[in-house]
Structures are given as structure tokens and as C-alpha cells.
Design a protein that fits this description.
With 407 residues, the chain is α+β, with helices and mostly antiparallel strands. It is built from 8 helices and 11 strands. The protein folds into 3 domains: 2-131, 2-Layer Sandwich (Beta-Lactamase), CATH 3.30.450; 156-243; 257-403, Heat Shock Protein 90 (2-Layer Sandwich), CATH 3.30.565.10. The strands form 3 sheets. Strands 6-8-9-11-10 form a 5-stranded mixed sheet, covered by helices on one side. A hairpin with a 7-residue loop joins β3 and β4. The longest helix has 87 residues, at 133-219. It starts with a helix and ends with a strand.
């Protein structure tokens, strides 16, 4: 917020400052040129009147030449950067002079005035040129100095504005940080409460089943077959609770955990996972393939094996019997597990790694899932400095990518 305010305010300040300086420079330049034009016109009128008087005095004398007279004038005024020329025309013309400003001409910057002499010498045309190179250079020097001052002022203003905004925003930033901490604490509290609620819900079902079957065994006189069946249900629910406990213990162990890294050949790891899952693959009729670029990764092997096992196990459950295909890939330092299964609704993707979250509670529960598999996978990826990305299209399949930042 402070940086955005600084940039917006500073850009507005620069716009106003440079626009104002630009207007001032244009005004000063135009004023200077107007002053030079007026000065030249006044000087021209003075010269032409004096010259006309001298011509009238010398006119008719033997050996007199108007060019010699103008030459003397030109030599005198050359000290003031003025050049004079006179031309004789066949017809008399108007005494009104034409003032012209010539910038970057062949003879440099100048103010040129051309006009006829007053009668009875209107057949003479006087040309006046004032060289203003020095004046133009002086204006350019002033502009450069002014622009340099503006740049220095801009830098000082930037420092002053930044310090001012830092002082103004400091209390606001403290308040924002305090609010963010409160929000974070609330989110953590809600997350913990959600975890407790989900855990309680997850445990209640098997406990209820265990208690019910145990009470049934205690109070009813049952044949051996029903006793064995009830014991089987009790063992299944107990096994499910044990799986939850083991996974939670593994998650707790991974918190602030530093893995032991070593070079792992990914192709061999893919082959081991495929062999471990072959009974499940054969039972459901799902095909698994893998492809690697022959590379290796630095990781703790048992954790990465657990990650792949969980991802592939989920993929097997998502695939249709005798029609599913799962592919493991290792390309450009990324492990990719994809399937052609039922897919995941887009609204469920952000919640997939939350503990005990299930897209289809009935299906996962029936397959013995704990709702902690992807949570564990995400944790394993994070302790390796990797990032887990999940993409899925409903009824088309799911693709999970583990981006390893270190080779």
C-alpha cells in the first residue's frame, strides 16, 4: 500500500513539476525572442532614419556612393552582431519593414528585417540581420541549469516523500500486521477445530461399530460362524483406526523434519512401486506404465516411495475396473502421476490436501481410505522443498505433479 501510494504520488508530482517547468521555459523563450524582435525593430527604425538623413545630406555630391555610406554603418554595427546591406530597385516600395525570425539557418540564428527607405529614397531596400546565436545559447544554458535543478529537486522530493509516507503509514502497517496475525490465528484455530471435528467424526464410526459388535458378542448366544464374522468386522474397524493413527504419527514426525538426501534412480523407484502395487493392479485390471528421462533426484527414498505409493493407490481406486491406466513420469525434474479415472470436481481441488477430506466419503470409506493420503503426500513434498500441483477433469482423469526445485 505504501509503495503504491509513493509511486502514484511521486508520478503525479513529477508530472506537475515537469509540466510547470515546461510552461515556464516556453514562456521565457517566447518572451526573450519577442524582446529581441522588438529591440531589432526599434534599432532598424533608428538606423534607417539616420541613414536616410545622411543620404539626403550627401546626395548629389561628387564622388558620393550610398554603398560606401552603408559600409561605414555596417562596420560600426558589426560590433553589436548586426550586418547591413542595401539594394537599389527600379521602383519605389512601401516603407513598412518585414521582421523575420530565422532559427538554425545557414548563417545561424538571426532576426532579419527587410524594408524600403523612406521617400524620396524608396528605391533603396535595406536589409538588417541581427545574429542571436549568443542569446539562443544563453537561453539553452539557462534551460539546462533549470532542468538540472529540477532533477535534483525530483530526487530530493522522492527521498522526502518516501520518508514522509514511511512515517504516515507506520501506524497503519502495524495495525494491518496485527490484523493479519489475528486473521492467521483465527484461521489456525478454525483449522485445528476442523481437524478435531473431522478426526472425531472419523473415529466415531469405527468405535461405534466396534462397540456394537462387542456388545452383540457379549449379550447374544451366537453360532461360531457369526462370532467369526463379528470378530472380522471388529478387526477391520480396528485396522482402519490403526491406519489413521499410523498416518497421523507419520505426519507429526514430518513436521520440522529434515530428510536425509541421497541420489535415487527414479526408474528403479518406479519399478519398485509398480511391483508393490501389482496385486491391486491385477485384482482391478488396471494397467500401469512409467517413463523417465533416466535421471535421478536427491531425496529420502522411503518417503518418496510412500508418496508414490499413496498417489498410485488413489489412482487405482479412481480407475474403472479392466479399463484404467496409470502413468508415472519423470521429466525435467518433475514426478508426474496421471490416470484416466473418474476425476475430481473443480470445486473440491483446493480441499484435497486437507486432513480427512474425501470427495466421495462412501467410496473411500468402503476402500479403507483414511482421508490423509494426499495430506501426507503434500507434507513429504514440502520437506523436500518441492511443490505438489493437482489438476483434474471430472470423468476424464487426474494429474498430480511434484515439482522438485533442486536437481
Amino acid at each position: 500500500m505504501r509503495i503504491k501510494t509513493f509511486i502514484a504520488t511521486y508520478l503525479l508530482f513529477l508530472f506537475i513539476l515537469y509540466a510547470s517547468v515546461g510552461v515556464v521555459l516556453i514562456y521565457l523563450s517566447n518572451s526573450q525572442l519577442d524582446m529581441l524582435r522588438n529591440k531589432s525593430a526599434a534599432q532598424y527604425q533608428s538606423i534607417i532614419q539616420t541613414l536616410a538623413r545622411d543620404i539626403s545630406i550627401l546626395h548629389g555630391r561628387p564622388g558620393w556612393d550610398v554603398q560606401d555610406l552603408v559600409h561605414e554603418y555596417a562596420r560600426y554595427f558589426s560590433r553589436h552582431n548586426v550586418s547591413l546591406n542595401i539594394f537599389e530597385e527600379a521602383q519605389n516600395g512601401s516603407a513598412n519593414a518585414e521582421v523575420t525570425l530565422v532559427l538554425d539557418g545557414e548563417e545561424g540564428h538571426r532576426i532579419s528585417i527587410v524594408g524600403h527607405m523612406p521617400e524620396p529614397f524608396g528605391h533603396f531596400l535595406l536589409e538588417y540581420n541581427l545574429n542571436i546565436d549568443a542569446n539562443i545559447q544563453e537561453m539553452l544554458d539557462i534551460q539546462q541549469v533549470l532542468l538540472l535543478v529540477v532533477v535534483v529537486v525530483s530526487l530530493l522530493a522522492a527521498v522526502a516523500l518516501y520518508i514522509l509516507l514511511a512515517v504516515v503509514f507506520r501506524p497503519m502497517e502495524r495495525m494491518v500486521r496485527a490484523e493479519q496475525r489475528v486473521i492467521l490465528l483465527q484461521e489456525e484455530a478454525e483449522s485445528k477445530q476442523q481437524f478435531v471435528d473431522n478426526f472425531t467424526h472419523e473415529i466415531r464410526t469405527p468405535l461405534t461399530s466396534i462397540y456394537g459388535f462387542a456388545e452383540y458378542l457379549q449379550k447374544a448366544s451366537l453360532p461360531a460362524e457369526e462370532i467369526a464374522e463379528s470378530a472380522h468386522f471388529i478387526m477391520d474397524e480396528t485396522r482402519h483406526m490403526k491406519n489413521i493413527a499410523d498416518t497421523l504419527l507419520e505426519l507429526a514426525t514430518l513436521r520440522n523434519f529434515s530428510p536425509t538426501l541421497k541420489e535415487i534412480k527414479v526408474a528403479a523407484l518406479f519399478n519398485e512401486v509398480t511391483q508393490s502395487l501389482s496385486p491391486l493392479l491385477d485384482k482391478k485390471g488396471v494397467r500401469m506404465v512409467y517413463d523417465t528421462d533416466g535421471g535421478t533426484i536427491k531425496a529420502q527414498e522411503d518417503l518418496i516411495r510412500s508418496l508414490l505409493f499413496n498417489l498410485c493407490n488413489n489412482a487405482i481406486k479412481a480407475c474403472k475396473p479392466d479399463a484404467g491406466e496409470i502413468k508415472m513420469e519423470f521429466l525435467n525434474n518433475k514426478i508426474i502421476v496421471s490416470d484416466n479415472g473418474c476425476g475430481i470436481p473443480i470445486e473440491a481441488l483446493p480441499k484435497l490436501t486437507e486432513p480427512f477430506f474425501r470427495v466421495d466419503k462412501a467410496r473411500n470409506r468402503a476402500h479403507g481410505g483414511t482421508g490423509l493420503g494426499l495430506t501426507l503426500c503434500k507434507q513429504i513434498a514440502e520437506v523436500h522443498g518441492a511443490k505438489m500441483e493437482i489438476a483434474s477433469i471430472l470423468n476424464e482423469g487426474t494429474r498430480i505433479i511434484i515439482h522438485f526445485t533442486k536437481p
